[in-house]
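Notes from the pairing session

We agreed to fold both candidates in a single pass and log them together. This is the raw record for the first candidate, unedited. Please don't reformat it; downstream parsing expects exactly this layout.

Candidate A
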Amino acid sequence: MTKNILLAFIIIVFTTSCINAQVLHAQWKVSSKKVSACEYDLIFTVTIDKDWHIPSILKIKGAEDETFPTEIIFKPNQAYTLVGNLKETKPAAEYDKTVKTTVYYHYNKVVFTQRVKINANSKLKIEGTYEHQICDNVKCDFPPKDSFSIDLTGTAACAR
């Protein structure tokens, strides 16, 4: 009986530790906004916990091995075309003593936007992944790469 109670206690402690270790500190929401008959903005809104930050999408020249920019990768599909580059709300510039250069971070909330042009007269699914690093003043975590999917609809005008 005592062994069963001890085993149950160990399982509860281990499970609680694992759950606490999986706190992500950044919540992603993906949406779309129609801007014309055949163009949409794909909007990635990230809410970041207090005292935490995520890197900008900007690659830091000379510190590529030490800094890890946020990435949003779109799965290629002939039914749509990316228009321009991924945009982000303005990041905060900070000097990082570790890499001896200025780095760019987002605190509280960041919005990434990618415009797409629909090339089809049908429903389509835009899929991809996002990946980021999340840091506080003591440590950085690397949450697993996560996937997204957005359903859109093209018209006859878009297929031309």
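Candidate B (folded immediately after A)
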Amino acid sequence: MDFTLRPWQPEDAESVAELADNEKIASNLRDGFPHPYSMEAARAFVASRILSDEKNELSYAIDIAGRAAGSIGIFRKADVYRKSAELGYWLGEPYWGKGVMTAAVYLLCRMAFSRLDIVRIEAEPFARNRGSCRVLDKAGFELEGVLKKSVYKNGALGDSCVFALIRNDLDWEVLGRLSLPELWERFPVVLSAYREEWARFYALEKSVLEHFVGAENIYRISHIGSTSVPGLLAKPTVDILLEIKWDTDLDALKDAIRRAGYGLNHRPDKPWPHLTFIRGYTAEGFYGQVFHVHIRYPGDWDELYFRDYLRAHREAADLYASMKNELSEDYKNDRDGYTAAKTGFIELAVQSAREEYGKVYDTVIDDTIG
């Protein structure tokens, strides 16, 4: 379901009063969230959000079809905890189970790491609130522990869970000083059975890129590589092909994607503008989901044909998986060698795909050129 995160407006109070007046919501939040939820409480809440301190918190309405359907915010802590922030949210019941909150949490956390001087975001849902725990898990948070009998709500004691998301783009300078052999040792070629979460993380990351890069600069975004082929053995890296419009400001683009938590990897061997961005690499090794974003101008790219061919031809996908499994042993600490060894197979598959499909991804020249 489509949504946007936007600043609060006075007229949102009516929607808040209607949707927040729900015992199912109030029973899973702290006592500061009233029940019943009056119009007076809604007006006070919206007014407080409009006047919020933007230097220390991000607070937004979750807008669905022009209506404030819920609330989400990240609030920086103080004193020795000032590098940490707390996440809070609620969503109107008509919008539950549609993936809205997971996407909203995922996006806002990236915005917060970009705009607030923090390295950690934490949330403490009631353990019985399985829906909220699933949201955090799907958004990339890790469960750090369960606090036994830590909450007292509606006359009963209960457990709470501590979830945390750690900023993982702080080590680019350290990684930049490593030699290729050192990098390959730290980040070996490791294959994984197919995971359905890869498609979900692609969709979430697509929303992040659209937010930071701007839809006006994007021609097409595509999930490519082995993680885009259901059932295929793969390095657990979500590869994204981001085709930008011809008049996109490249300096602004680099800055935007860096703010989204990526490191720049110059690739002169790739088509102009020779840009690849990476995420999920730290001085200690891989952390969280790994992403590669390949920047191209609009084109009839081989990667799209290769993906489609493997999706449509199970026997070719199985053969490719078998070959990769063997190569991963021979080139465990040589990523470039591993990639080069697959080139012949890929070229033949792309040729077969083009013969079978024709020019599926041929582009119309953008009228902003020249």
